[in-house]
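Quick question, first post here. What does this chain look like in 3D?
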Amino acid sequence: MDYVENITSLVGNTPLIKLKEVSEITGCTILGKAEFLNPGQSVKDRAALSIIRDAESKNLLEPEGLIVEGTAGNTGIGLTVIGQALGYKTLIVMPETQSEEKKSSLKDLGASLLLVPALPYSNPGNYIRVSEKVAKEKNAFWANQFDNIANKMAHIEGTSQEIWSQTNQKIDAFISAVGTGGTLSGVSQGLKHKNKNIVTVCADPYGSGMYTWIKEGEANASGSSITEGIGQSRITKNLKDALIDDAFQINDSEALNIIYNLLKNEGLSLGPSSGINIAGAVKLAKQMGPGKTIVTILCDYGIRYASKIYNIEFLKSKDLPIPDWL
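> Answer (accepted):
Ran it through. Tokens below.
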């Protein structure tokens, strides 16, 4: 009989999808790794499983223990779904500015949810800092996705190896945005270990300092973005020693136009961070020239952000493009 024992077996091994329109426009083969097909419907399931397994190996998690994490949403969903499959509970600390869909999803999935004001990391009220404090108070395990390198290891050992195999070792470049840094740093490290000539690039939304950090050596943020879970100005432990060759800045309009076209013409429903990634892949393809194979991450489903990206009033208030079917 053909079955899996536990949903943890379904994390990873996601397919690559050729993104037809952007491939045709650029003359390159632009491939998206379909991370929305993980059990918790995002790339963050990889980090969640790796962090939990690492904690178990170090005896940091008791049976039926509590996992506490500060997250923009997807890592919290991953920790909750995978944690429950392995017998753990979760308490998630999230900035109150995140989408209503993510908030309700976490509560519906059984997580305890603590919403806090959106404050910079330097402020003790920042969601990451609060999660560390709550974990100590409750004598719980703090997942610490930003500085726990089990996050990056999931992509060194998993994602990068899958991409290398799926492209028949014929990949020219990889590009993605930075949230914690785990995906870009881990995939870059894994791929460059296979072939040092593979180009690795950051696609950065406005309001983030990754672009200037990579280009100039100092993280200086400017502007703003509606994207969630990506873009920051802190050099996390997952980002230290990252092998990143270049960076592009992407605005929200570019990202939204891409995800609206993908849904309308290719049946792919993706969130804004995937739009940032694909827009970056287009810029990279134009810079590298035709005939290259470029891989990026399709992070999660667009429906997780419906109250923003499919909300006419919200889009108008931000002077952003509106899909014609609305």
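The chain has a mean pLDDT of 97.
The radius of gyration is 19 Å.
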